[in-house]
């Protein structure tokens, strides 16, 4: 990667998040970065972006942006980094697995870059953790019930969710477990845990609420540095109601920062 040249970006996955990221990169809205192509599971006809094989992507890209889910991140992170390609991950919940997290940490020379995704305040939480540790964080997430149905749920759990007429607590527990059980919905808890550097300090409460037109995240933290409370309400993506519409824009912001850092 030569300083001063364009930051060449490959986008892994072309769903609700990846399609917006690819489109914006192709339109040139991230200064100093360009779309090299998209990496798909299988070839797609009628797509306006170049489709890259893994071989071509690792040869031609400076950065791969993962917009494809925890499984795709687990399968590809180490080889991306080992090729000297940076990796911007949206599915950070995969890092709740300590074995995977250690393998990613040991991999390089590419750098793993995280994103705030659907939430904010991570810079302040990171600073507070550095100052004296964050004793406890509670992330309360409220989403439409249908977006929380999971493949591992039994019939009764599914119908409780589908027929909920008011808020129902679906999960309460540590962030690592939350990220594993709700892989597409609780990457925000992982982002908080990574920002404070302590998975055990972060607890999650997940509410299914038929009135939750906007997806809500309340983040309440305290420790020796102070007390913090952040409230975020995002409209869901029209393409995937499990994902907030802001997420691709958070990734684009992270790509811009990474591109700027090379200048
Ligand atoms: N950090 C956050 O705040 C946040 C928020 C929402 C979603 N996410 C993460 O982003 C992921 C993607 O979200 P989305 O709404 O775009 O999902 P989506 O289902 O709309 O799109 C995912 C795309 O990835 C593709 N894909 C899956 N596995 C792949 C693989 N191995 N190789 C190539 N392509 C693959 C799918 O075919 C699909 O097109 C979610 O699974 C979640 O883990 C993170």
Polypeptide structure, described:
This protein has 263 residues and is an alpha/beta fold. It folds into two domains: 7-117 and 246-261, Rossmann fold (3-Layer(aba) Sandwich), CATH 3.40.50.720; 122-234, Dihydrodipicolinate Reductase, domain 2. Helices cover 35% and strands 24% of the residues. The chain has nine helices and ten strands. It has helices at 16-26, 54-60, 70-82, 98-106, 122-132, 155-162, 175-181, 187-196, 247-261, and strands at residues 7-12, 33-39, 63-66, 86-89, 112-114, 136-143, 168-174, 202-208, 215-223, 226-234. A five-stranded parallel β-sheet has the order 2-1-3-4-5, with helices on both faces. Strand 3 (63-66), helix 3 and strand 4 form a beta-alpha-beta unit. The model has no long low-confidence stretch (mean pLDDT 95). Nicotinamide-adenine-dinucleotide (NAD) binds next to helix 1, helix 3 and helix 8. Nicotinamide-adenine-dinucleotide (NAD) is lined by residues 12-18, 39-41, 67-70, 72, 90-91, 117-118, 183-184, 187-188, 191, 240, 243, 247.
**Beta strand count:** 10
Estimate the helix proportion, in percent. Answer: 25-40%
The CATH H-level homologous superfamily of the largest domain: NAD(P)-binding Rossmann-like Domain
Q: What is the terminal separation in angstroms?
A: 12 Å
The largest sheet, given as strand count, sense and whether it forms a barrel, is: 5 strands, parallel
Which ligands accompany this protein?
nicotinamide-adenine-dinucleotide
The fold-level CATH name of the largest domain is Rossmann fold
| CATH class designation of the largest domain | Alpha Beta
Query: Structural class, judged by helices and strands?
Result: alpha/beta
Strand order, sheet with most strands: 2-1-3-4-5
The total count of helices amounts to: 9
CATH architectural label of the largest domain: 3-Layer(aba) Sandwich
